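Lab meeting, item 3. Inverse folding demo.
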């Protein structure tokens, strides 16, 4: 028994614990219909694991099952088997076999929901499945685990087996009683034999069997004593007077035996006491009967002589009885001798038992000392681990203080960030409003831009067409201007030739004056020399010449007088007035275009300045953005470093938590082992108490035997009494020794509560450490969650800041683009207005050109008419002179008329020379000089007009060049906008 206990105490240390025992019975159990009720929220999936308390290992584990409406049901069935030895199965109170059900979450972070344990020894004899609801331990949510347990190999009922054994014993006892009743003449020597056999069987039971078998032997021993004692009483007293009593006693003993067979070990011990008491009562009853018989003999002597014979017969019978009693005394003496030898054998056996007990106690003490040393070493290791855990806890506390400081700093930063967030939220709202307005405006502007682009495209198409037309017209004008410049150059050459002709005319006039002087001298000479005839003829000739000259002068005067009255002069005046008006209008237009050019140059300069400012601002913003990016990168690096440090600390803390968890598991295992050892010690103490009680019973038996021996030896010898007293003293000394040993064991048992208290303190410290570890893990997880949330918030804030910066930059860009577009639109509108004005001007110029062309065509018609008239003037000079002086409205016609007039003047001079040579008259010369002066004045006027026309053409060409440059610039801007 003790070895089995020691083996069970050290079962968790040995590797042979998993193997089934050599002799025992296997019981198979199934666990089905497992479901968890009242599962709290937050546990989405659960898994169940089955742990054996013997091996402290996970036997089975289920899969992850989802929780629905607070219940989680597992469809799996678990099968487990346990081995129970024959010694354990023979007991009424079998050993407890616990299995632990551990309910955990689906993920590693969720942890354990709770655990519960189930004793399978309670279901060994259950033939039908049993539904059990077990509340989960270490769970504050009140969840319940329902399990349906069924034993596949149920055990037979122990009470039924005992009832069967009891009935068998009852039949045996009844047969034995019948046999003993038939043996009426049996002597009292059988009592000693039976006592010897019972004592020997009891001794053998004490040596070989276990405490459970001792109780059975004691019950049989007590029953046999009771039976044989009553048989002896029947033999000594007589069957007639004590038969009823013996039957009653036998029946009572049979009942007591039945009760002994049914009850447990404690009841068996009680029955042994009752049988011993019955033996004493029987012996006292026999003594009383002997006294009564002696008293009856005395009374018979005093009675009548009639009864003497009867008394003599009775005395003879009593003598016979006395002889029998003497024989019985001899047999009792023999029995005493045999009992002494048996006592000596019993003392030897007791010594052997004591030696065995001492050896076993020594072994047990050594085992306990080894275990205590092991526990001390384990306690020292645990104390070292506790110190390490305390140090690690101190470090963790310092780390958590640092974390709290960082958390406080982060809270301050979070508060500042929250204030910034509020500002950002307000700014975000404002930006949202602005974005909405900007989106609306952008949509509107896009619509307007689309419309404007369409309008601009149409206008550009129209403008491109008009520009092409204008280019064509400008080319035509350039060709006309080139032709006019060529004609002007030809006119200049002709004017130079006319100047040369004027020089020749002046020379001719000088010669004419000289000739006049010569003529006057000749007249004087003729007047003096010639006669009157000649004078008369000369005077007549002179008169003819004078009359011819006068006629020519009159004709010249008339022609000169007729010219101002002619309609051509009025037309020329009107044309000059129109040209002046046109000059004034063109000068005004030129001034307006110069103002527009100045405005355009100013706007270009302002746009350039704005572009420079925007570029400078963009550069500054880029610098700020680079600085912010550098700051953000530095912050990211700092955050990464902090994260790495935090991760390192977290890993260290996790490692410490894992080590603590392993230590906790080890401590739990050690505490469980200590608890098991404590339970085993308690059981062992109970067994020792039972052994002590048995020893006390044995002592009581020995005392009773010693008393019997004293009573028997008081008649025989005092020496034997002294020997027996010495033996009793020796037994008392042994009892005292056993009491001392019991006191030592009690002291050890008193030490056990201290160990229990230490174990409880260790458990409490373990629980506190677990709670601290859980609190630390929870705080660490909360800190990690806060850190992750802060990290996410920082990232979101950085993203928001970047998005806000992007939005601000986009808004600024959109504003700039909008302002640029508005400026460009204004410019385009101005340009369109200018283009419209230019188009109007071009149309006006076209109209003017058309008018000029019409005038040119008219002048060409007039030139044709004039050529016709000139052809006619060759026939009649006067009519031709009056007709060919039709005024010209155009410069080209004027130039042609001047050329024709020059030709006519040259012809006229040539004719005039001929006339001078033929006529030699002064009057004709005077008229010719007047005509030459008039022609020179006309030539000077025509030269001035030609210079003015050239200047106008140069100004117009410059304006056209500027307009074309502006048009090209606008076309480039429109292309850029379209891009």
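The presenter then showed the designed sequence:
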């Amino acid at each position: 028994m003790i070895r089995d206990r020691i083996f069970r105490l050290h079962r968790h240390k040995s590797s042979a614990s998993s193997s089934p025992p050599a002799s025992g019975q296997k019981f198979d159990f199934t666990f089905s219909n497992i479901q968890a009720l009242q599962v709290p929220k937050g546990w989405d999936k659960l898994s169940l694991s089955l742990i054996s308390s013997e091996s402290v290992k996970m036997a089975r584990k289920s899969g992850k099952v989802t929780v629905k409406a607070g219940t989680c049901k597992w469809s799996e069935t678990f099968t487990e088997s346990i081995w129970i030895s024959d010694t354990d199965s023979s007991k009424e109170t079998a050993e407890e076999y616990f299995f632990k059900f551990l309910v955990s979450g689906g993920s590693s972070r969720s942890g354990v929901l709770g655990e519960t344990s189930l004793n399978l020894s309670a279901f060994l004899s259950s033939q039908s499945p049993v539904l059990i609801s077990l509340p989960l331990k270490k769970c504050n949510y009140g969840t319940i685990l329902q399990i349906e347990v069924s034993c596949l190999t149920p055990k037979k009922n122990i009470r039924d087996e005992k009832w069967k054994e009891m009935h068998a014993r009852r039949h045996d006892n009844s047969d034995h009683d019948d046999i003993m009743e038939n043996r009426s003449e049996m002597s009292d020597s059988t009592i000693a034999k039976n006592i010897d056999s019972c004592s020997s069987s009891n001794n053998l039971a004490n040596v070989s069997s276990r405490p459970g078998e001792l109780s059975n032997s004691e019950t049989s021993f007590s029953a046999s004593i009771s039976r044989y004692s009553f048989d002896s009483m029947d033999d000594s007293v007589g069957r007639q007077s004590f038969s009823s009593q013996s039957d009653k006693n036998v029946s009572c003993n049979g009942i007591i035996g039945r009760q002994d067979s049914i009850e447990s070990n404690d009841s068996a011990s009680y029955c042994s006491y009752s049988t011993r008491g019955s033996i004493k009562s029987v012996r006292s009853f026999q003594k009383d009967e002997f006294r009564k018989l002696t008293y009856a003999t005395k009374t018979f002597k005093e009675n009548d002589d009639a009864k003497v014979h009867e008394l003599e017969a009775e005395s003879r019978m009593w003598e016979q009885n006395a002889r029998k009693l003497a024989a019985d005394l001899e047999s009792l003496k023999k029995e005493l001798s045999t009992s002494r030898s048996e006592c000596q054998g019993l003392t030897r056996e007791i010594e052997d038992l004591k030696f065995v007990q001492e050896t076993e106690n020594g072994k047990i003490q050594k085992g306990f000392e080894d275990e205590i040393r092991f526990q001390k070493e384990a306690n020292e290791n645990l104390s070292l681990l506790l110190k390490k855990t305390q140090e690690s806890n101190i470090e963790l506390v310092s780390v958590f203080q640092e974390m709290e400081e960082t958390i406080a700093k982060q809270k301050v930063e979070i508060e500042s960030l929250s204030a910034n967030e509020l500002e950002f939220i307000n700014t975000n709202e404002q930006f949202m409003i602005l974005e909405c307005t900007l989106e609306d405006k952008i949509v509107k502007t896009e619509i307007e831009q689309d419309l404007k682009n369409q309008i601009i495209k149409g206008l550009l198409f129209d403008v491109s067409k008009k520009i092409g037309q204008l280019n064509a017209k400008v080319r035509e004008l350039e060709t006309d201007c080139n032709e006019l410049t060529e004609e002007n150059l030809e006119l200049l050459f002709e004017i130079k030739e006319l100047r040369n002709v004027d020089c020749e005319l002046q020379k001719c006039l000088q010669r004419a004056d000289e000739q006049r002087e010569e003529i006057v001298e000749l007249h004087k000479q003729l007047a003096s020399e010639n006669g009157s005839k000649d004078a008369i003829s000369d005077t007549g000739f002179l008169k003819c010449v004078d009359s011819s000259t006068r006629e020519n002068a009159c004709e010249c005067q008339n022609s000169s007088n007729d010219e101002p009255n002619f309609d051509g002069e009025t037309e020329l005046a009107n044309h000059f007035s129109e040209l002046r008006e046109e000059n004034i209008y063109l000068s005004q237009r030129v001034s307006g275009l110069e103002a527009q050019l100045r405005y355009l140059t100013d706007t270009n300069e302002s746009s350039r300045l704005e572009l420079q400012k925007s570029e400078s601002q963009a550069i500054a913003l880029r610098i700020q953005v680079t600085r912010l990016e550098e700051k953000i990168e530095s912050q990211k690096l700092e955050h990464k470093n902090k994260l790495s440090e935090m991760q390192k600390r977290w890993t260290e803390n996790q490692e410490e938590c894992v080590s603590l968890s392993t230590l906790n598991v080890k401590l739990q295992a050690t505490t469980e082992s200590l608890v098991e050892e404590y339970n085993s010690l308690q059981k062992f103490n109970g067994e020792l108490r039972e052994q002590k009680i048995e020893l006390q019973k044995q002592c009581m038996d020995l005392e009773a035997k010693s008393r019997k021996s004293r009573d028997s030896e008081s008649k025989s010898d005092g020496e034997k009494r002294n020997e027996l007293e010495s033996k009793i003293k020796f037994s008392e000394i042994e009892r005292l020794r056993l009491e001392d040993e019991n006191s030592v064991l009690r002291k050890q048992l008193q030490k056990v509560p201290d160990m229990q208290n230490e174990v409880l303190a260790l458990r409490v410290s373990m629980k506190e450490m677990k709670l601290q570890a859980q609190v630390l893990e929870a705080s660490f997880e909360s800190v990690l969650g806060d850190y992750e949330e802060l990290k996410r918030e920082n990232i979101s804030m950085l993203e928001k800041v970047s998005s806000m910066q992007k939005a601000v930059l986009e808004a600024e860009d959109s504003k700039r683009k909008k302002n640029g577009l508005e400026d460009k639109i204004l410019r385009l509108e101005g340009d369109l207005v200018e283009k419209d004005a230019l188009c109007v001007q071009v149309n006006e110029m076209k109209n003017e050109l058309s008018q000029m062309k019409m005038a040119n065509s008219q002048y060409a018609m007039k030139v044709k008419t004039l050529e016709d008239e000139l052809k006619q003037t060759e026939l009649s000079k006067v009519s031709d002179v009056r007709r060919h002086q039709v005024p010209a409205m155009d410069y080209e016609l004027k130039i042609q008329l001047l050329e024709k007039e020059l030709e006519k003047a040259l012809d006229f001079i040539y004719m005039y020379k001929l006339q001078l040579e033929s006529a030699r008259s002064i009057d004709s010369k005077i008229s010719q000089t007047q005509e030459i002066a008039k022609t020179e004045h006309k030539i000077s006027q025509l030269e001035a007009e030609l210079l003015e026309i050239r200047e106008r053409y140069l100004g117009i060409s410059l304006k056209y060049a500027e307009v074309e440059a502006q048009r090209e610039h606008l076309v480039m801007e429109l292309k850029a906008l379209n891009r």
